[in-house]
Design goal:
By secondary structure, the protein is an alpha/beta fold. It is 60% helix and 8% strand. It has a 6-stranded mixed sheet with strand order 4-5-3-6-7-8, with helices on both faces.
Length: 757
């Protein structure tokens, strides 16, 4: 791979995904909005100089700034455009031939008295072919003229962005009689002359005239849709204009999903420190390995000089020290983080835009469903939502979400709505699982809290450091972390009500319900008072964790989407455990959950509720989800229906899919790792390890991605045992060290932010 600048690929190569989506060869194109285009081109002067094809490109370009512009005015004359709000000037200059007049205009910009345009887009040839009836003399004169213009363009390229647009092919069968002499053979000859002459004197220079040849590829696919055989259809012109915008603006605006023409970001201070830390960990681990190997050689069997017999030391398995395990974990983590950085921060591997088709989403879904059913085993216990079952549930949901992300299925509304149900189901499990633990175990110790917080946040904290991303960027981890703390606070605050205490006196159940009502009231108040919510999370240093793009609105939006789901997970756990304690449900192997009649009725209602399509998918958006209780009830109904379908029949409750459960045990790592080593550009695109072979690329990148997620899960478990010990005094010391680490991190982030500004 040549790596480096991707502008050349953007200007020269690519392919269509479907009919209208253009995919450059090695990078991702950003779709610029009007506001973004204005911000990029503020105080800029852009000039389009050429024939009618350049005029079309001019109109498509200014429509990116102001979509209300109409194509009117003198077609064979100069056309000015100005956006006074952003001080943007875009001019079209009518010069249909490469001749002395065009040379004189370009020369005027090289002289000091005239202001140079910031961007110059030039091109012409078809008029020369038409006027001179396709003669060879006209081609010779074209070469002479462009030879005289080339040094002027190269001189302008030192201070401005200069693009020469090659001529697009024509659809010869559709050309009118007075254009029949414009053949693709003639156009190729003119293009060949332009490419050979331009930059001939500055081939090794960084400041060159950029040859815009990608329009030829676009025209080859779309020219048959032309109305006259000569001019491109509007969609193709718009694609060319968007490419121009990406070439110039990506290095200025730095959009996440626009990797073309973006330089590799410089390493931050925190990233450099992280690199040093991982390097030292690797060196330290290698030193320990060498010391252990040397000790092993010394302890090998040796010959007794007096008796001549061989002495064999007692065989024993060497214990791995805490320091060795710590360095080994950081060593592996350092290598993995290097791969993360190379995939999504360095310009080493290619990236492509997503493109949704029904087959790209539903075929993998069917495939994993078959695999999941194939790997079926008996559960160790037959309780409702037992460990194997919840792992299975997390697993298949995570796989569906991964397929949803890589296929770009968010553009298809019914799929998007069902994925929203899956996200809500994850949060439901959060409420159910943590409530059940605290209610049954009554363990509110610091060790339990620290273990959960470490396992949830370790990978995200490392990625925030290595990938230079804010904590809120990985929104799901802050979400489940905050909800865990809310559940803990609700149950741990005096009076601590647990199952053992409630069994002795039923009044404690009413005390717990009172706590839950207070929690529900607080959720309601915060969800309808954005100001109060923002005040809570805007205090420094809390704001450093929950701000995204300078405010906490995104955090409020994410929290509000499923604000009642965790509460209902807690409520479901309370009701289920109360019924279980009073032996009102049967959880024996093969037994239905209730009596046969009740089980059959509930099962029928659940299946109908689960399968009935959501008739309100049309005209729905996030705004409606926030402000309407209907969608919450819809999500909750589907979650409860699934739980009942999965648990009412005894034979269904007694088996689980080990395939899905395996993925469920690393679901958090899968969700986070996909951001950078499976998808690309922070989930906006797809990582390309093997270009030209999409299916093979997905197989290879998926294999690496899953292996890395599994390894990180094991590293997290190993480090959790070291960093969060059970001994309270040791744990307190570790917490002080962690507090010092985060204080230093905050200090460095402040210094880093000041240096950026």
């Amino acid at each position: 791979f040549k790596g480096g600048d991707t502008c050349e690929d953007l200007l020269s190569s690519g392919r269509f995904l479907g009919e209208k989506v253009w995919q450059p060869h090695s990078c991702m194109m950003h779709k610029y909005k009007n506001s973004e285009a204005k911000n990029c081109l503020i105080d800029k002067h852009v000039v389009f100089i050429g024939d009618s094809r350049i005029r079309q490109l001019f109109y498509s370009f200014i429509k990116l700034i102001n979509p209300q512009v109409k194509e009117e005015g003198n077609k064979h004359g100069n056309i000015p455009f100005e956006d006074k709000s952003a001080s943007i000037k875009v001019d079209f200059l009518w010069y249909p031939e490469v001749n002395g007049s065009m040379r004189q205009r370009i020369k005027s910009w090289t002289e000091g008295s005239v202001a140079k345009p910031h961007i110059i887009v030039a091109g012409a040839a078809t008029w020369s072919i038409k006027i001179h009836n396709g003669s060879n003399e006209a081609l010779t004169q074209y070469k002479i003229n462009i030879t005289s213009i080339a040094p002027l363009l190269e001189k302008l390229a030192k201070s401005s962005d200069v693009y020469w647009v090659l001529q697009d092919p024509v659809y010869e069968e559709m050309l009118s009689e007075n254009r029949k002499m414009i053949t693709n053979e003639k156009i190729d000859a003119y293009n060949e002359a332009a490419v050979r002459i331009l930059n001939s004197s500055s081939r090794n220079s960084k400041t060159k005239v950029k040859v815009f040849s990608v329009s030829k590829l676009i025209a080859q696919e779309t020219i048959m849709k032309s109305t006259d055989g000569l001019h491109l259809p509007e969609s193709s012109r718009d694609t060319n204009a968007m490419i121009l915008m990406n070439v110039y603006c990506n290095k200025i605006m730095k959009p996440i999903d626009g990797s073309c023409c973006q330089p590799q970001p410089p390493l931050t201070l925190i990233q450099k420190l992280a690199f040093c830390f991982f390097t030292l960990s690797i060196i330290g681990y290698l030193i320990i390995i060498l010391i252990n190997r040397n000790n092993f050689r010394k302890n090998k069997s040796c010959t007794d000089l007096e008796s001549g017999e061989e002495k064999k030391p007692a065989l024993s398995v060497p214990n791995v020290s805490t320091l060795e395990m710590l360095l080994q974990s950081f060593c592996k983590l350092g290598l993995i983080m290097t791969y993360f950085y190379l995939c999504d921060r360095a310009n080493l591997f290619m990236k492509e835009n997503k493109f949704y088709t029904h087959s790209s989403f539903f075929i993998p879904i069917i495939y994993i469903l078959v695999l999941g059913v194939f790997y079926t085993e008996n559960t160790k216990e037959t309780k409702v939502l037992n460990r194997e079952q919840t792992d299975e549930w997390k697993g298949w949901m995570q796989l569906v979400i991964l397929i949803y992300h890589i296929s770009g299925a968010s553009t298809f509304l019914p799929v998007y709505m069902h994925i929203r149900v899956l996200v809500a189901a994850y949060l439901f499990q959060t409420g159910y699982g943590h409530f059940s633990y605290f209610w049954v175990k009554g363990d509110f110790g610091v060790y339990r809290v620290c273990q959960v917080l470490f396992r949830l946040n370790f990978l995200v904290v490392v990625l925030c450091i290595v990938m230079d991303r804010p904590y809120q960027f990985y929104y799901f981890v802050p979400l489940v972390t905050v909800w865990f703390m809310i559940i803990y606070a609700t149950l741990a605050i005096w009076p601590q009500i647990v199952q053992k205490k409630a069994n002795g006196n039923c009044l404690w159940h009413f005390g717990l319900l009172l706590k839950l009502i207070c929690l529900l009231t607080c959720i309601y108040i915060l969800s309808y008072s954005q100001g109060a919510f923002e005040k809570v999370f805007s205090f420094w240093p809390l704001s450093k964790c929950f701000e995204l793009n300078g405010n906490v609105y995104e955090w409020w939006f994410r929290w509000k989407l499923d604000r009642y789901v965790v509460f209902h997970g807690m409520l479901f756990a309370f009701i289920y455990l109360a019924l279980q304690k009073r032996q009102m449900i049967s959880e024996g192997k093969g037994d239905p959950l209730f009596s046969n009649r009740v089980s059959n009725v509930l099962l029928f209602i659940s299946i109908v509720s689960f399968l009935v399509p959501c008739l309100t998918y049309v005209c729905v958006c996030n705004l409606l989800i926030i402000h309407s209780h209907f969608f919450f009830k819809l999500f909750l109904k589907k979650i409860l229906a699934f739980i009942l379908i999965r648990n009412i029949p005894g034979y269904v409750r007694s088996v689980y899919s080990s395939f899905f459960a395996w993925f469920g045990r690393i679901s958090l790592e899968l969700f986070i790792c996909q951001y950078h080593i499976w998808l690309a550009a922070d989930t906006k695109g797809i990582l390309v390890l093997i270009p030209g072979y999409p299916m093979f690329n997905v197989l290879v990148s998926t294999f690496i991605f899953v292996c890395v997620a599994h390894e990180i899960s094991q590293i997290t478990n190993d480090l959790a045992q070291i960093v969060v010990p059970k001994d309270n005094s040791t744990l307190l010391k570790r917490l002080l060290c962690i507090a010092g680490f985060f204080s230093g991190l905050l200090l460095f982030s402040v210094v880093q932010d000041q240096s950026r500004h």
